[in-house]
Structures are given as C-alpha cells and as structure tokens.
Amino acid sequence: MSPVLQKPEIEARVVRKVARRLIPFLGLAYFVNYLDRTNIGLAKLTMSAELGLTETMFGLASGLFFIGYLLFEVPSNLALHRFGARRWIARIMLTWGIIAAAMAFVPNVGSLYGLRMLLGIAEAGFFPGVLLYLTLWFPRAYRVRLMGLFLLALPVSSALGAPLSSAIIQYWDGLFGLSGWRVMFLIEGIPAVLLAVVTWFYLTDRPSQATWLDEDEKVWLTRELESEASESGSHGSVRRALTDSRVWMLGLVYFGITYGLYSLSFFLPSIVAGFKKTFATDFSLFTTGLIVAVPFAVGAVAMVLWSRHSDRTGERIWHVAVPTLIGAVSIPVALYMQSPLTTMIAVTVNAVGVFCALPVFWYLPSTFLTGAGAAAGIAVVNSVGNLSGFGAPYVTGWLFDATGNSRAGLWVVGAVMLVAVMLVLILRSRVSATRSTEDAETRVVTASR
C-alpha cells in the first residue's frame, strides 16, 4: 500500500487507540478534581450555620482556593514538562485528595480558609498539565473534539456530583459522628488518593514510550506531531510565551468565560434554595441537588455537539464568541423570571453557553505554543482565567450581603462575560496564523471518515 493511501488508515487507527486509552481515564480524574473543588457549594447549605459563615465569608473561602492555585500554576506546569506527566499528575492527585478529605475536620472558618488555599496549591498544574499532555498525543485537527470529551467531565461532575453530594449530606448526617457536610468532604476526597496510585502505573509520558502502541504507530504519531510543530511556526520558549500578548489576552477571555462557570458552580445551590423565599417553594437537600444538576447535564450534551461542529467546520473564534455571548445575555434574564421553571431554563441556557465555549477555547493556545513554551503559556492562560474563581464567588457573595439578593452579582456575571466576547473578537486576527493549515487538516480528517 502506498504511503498516501496508508496515512488515513494509520491515522484513524492511532487516534482511536490513543483516545480510548487516555480520554476516559483523564476524564475520570478531572471529574474527581472538579468535584473536590466545587462541592463546597453544596456543603454551604448546612456548613454555614455550623461554622457561622456569612455570604461574604463563604465567597472568600471558595475563592481562596484560586489564590494558591494561581501562585503555583506556572511552576507546577513547568515541573510536569520536566519530570513527566505520569509522576507529576500522580503527585498532584495524592496531595489534593489528602487535603480535600482533611476539610471534613475544620473546626472554624480560619481553618477552612487555610485548607482551601492549600487545596489550590495542591491542585495547581493539574488542568493545564492535562491540556498540555493532550497536545503531546493528538494531532491538531482532532484536539477540539477530544478536548471536548475530556472537558465533558466538568459538567458531568456537577450533574452527578450535585445529587450525590446532597444525598450524602442529607442521608449520612451523623456517620462517624460527623455532620453530613463533613462526611461528604471525607468520602469525596478518597477517590483522588486512589487514582493517584493508578496514575503512576497507567499513564505514559510520550508516544515513543507507549508499549501499548505498535512500532509503526509510535513512529507515525511522533513524526506527525513534530511536523505540525515545525510547520505552524509555533514557539517553545518559556520567555517568549510569557511575553506573548496573545497568551495574556487569552487569559482575559478565559477569565470572562469561567466567571460565569464559577458563579454557577458555587452559588447555584444557594439560588435554588432561595426559591423558598422567592416563590414559596420548599425543596429537600437531595431535591435541590437534583435541580442543580439539570443545567450541567444539558450543558454536557451541548458541549459534545458544539465541539464536533467546530471540528467539522474548522471554525474556532465564532465557536467561542457566540456561546459566550449567549451565556452573557441569559444569566441576567434569569433574574426576572416569574417561576422556578423559567428561572432554571434561563440558567440552563447560560450553562450551555459556558460549556460550549470551553473546549473550543482551549484549542487556541496550541496554535502557537509548543514544548516548554506551551507548558508556561497554557499555565498563564489558566492562571489568569482562574482569577475569576476568586473574584466570582467573593464579589457575588459580597453583593448578596450588601443588597439582600443575587441580582447585582448576576448582572456582574453577564457584564464580565460580555467583555470576554469583545476580547475574543479583537483577538481573532492574532490567533489565525495557522488557520489555513488547520482548515486543510480538518478537511483531510473529515474526508477520511
């Protein structure tokens, strides 16, 4: 068989084999990661009374995670590049699992603040490290769809985690002599420790080391990825990545997208609980968890379909801008709905916008970053963006305490997401250097299916 005819066959075979090996496992790890990061939102429903938390104090406790996360993000990702994903991701998972479980024993708000910051330090580097890791295994034309499958763990962790966490809080209250929210932290921290051990033996750092690939498959994948890096004009310098204006602009765009994400993740349980006062309803903790799960479940389905559409068309910028705009408009609309159902419909539209934008957004850094430059650049983008993880819960909580309702905080969410739309459109011409190459690759992949 000639090389021209052979390439599509080996390409499809290798990508399928690598995807089946890596995506489900990394998705499971991210599921646990995001659950341990955001389960404080459901813990708040009973934890606040026990620890004496105001809305502002809860927002600060939620947001302090991201201060530790920010400080250690770039060093952690550079360490992953140096020591290898297998060792470093296992280390991250072990430490965050231990700290997440230790939150079951906080005696006061000061201890809660401290452990939330330590949790951020422990988790630093996991998400951008996995994104970097995926660029070492998948050709560019496949990345949006496969990143979408990996990022599917994010809405799924909330869709499944919300009812799971609320059920533990409600039905296991008193287990081991602990309050329900303490039992939840303890039980949900253990899986990360167990996965750390599995990670050490399961992951492979690079294609050339993969004993589960045939020799011709390893050679083809290694050459294909090296060829893409050399043809795209990508750079691998840490210094150039840290001084590249595109990196910092992408960080600001990501800030806007995730501002909506973290507002939902941390405060949606409180908004649903607030229906009791607004609409004279009364939901149990478990029912609240089920209601909270709905926007994330719908967002998960939309994320997969949208990322596939982006790969089929080869278009990226508008696939980020349009859903972000939908999210920006829909969240303030939710404030003026007249029933729990219509409010949740508007919130669900917001969730769809946020989750559709994410996988396509994370394609953009790989168009001009490789190697150590990619490690540093992706970490910077994630660090700047995740400042919203501090700002969103703290500002939303402070505005809730100041005004007595969630309206002002959610108007801010819409405004910040709207700024992200404008920034991504400004950025359009600056991230398109490899557009013609990308479109050609996408057409080849689509034609070979």
From TrEMBL:
Pfam assignment, any one: MFS_1
Highest taxon of source: Bacteria
Location, primary (coarse class): membrane
PROSITE patterns documented for this protein: MFS (PS50850)
Residues spanning the membrane: 18-36, 56-76, 88-107, 113-134, 146-169, 181-203, 247-271, 283-305, 317-337, 343-364, 376-396, 408-427
GO molecular function, one term: transmembrane transporter activity
Annotated localization: Cell membrane
Name recorded for this polypeptide: Putative tartrate transporter
Organism: Rhodococcus koreensis
Lineage of producing organism: Bacteria, Bacillati, Actinomycetota, Actinomycetes, Mycobacteriales
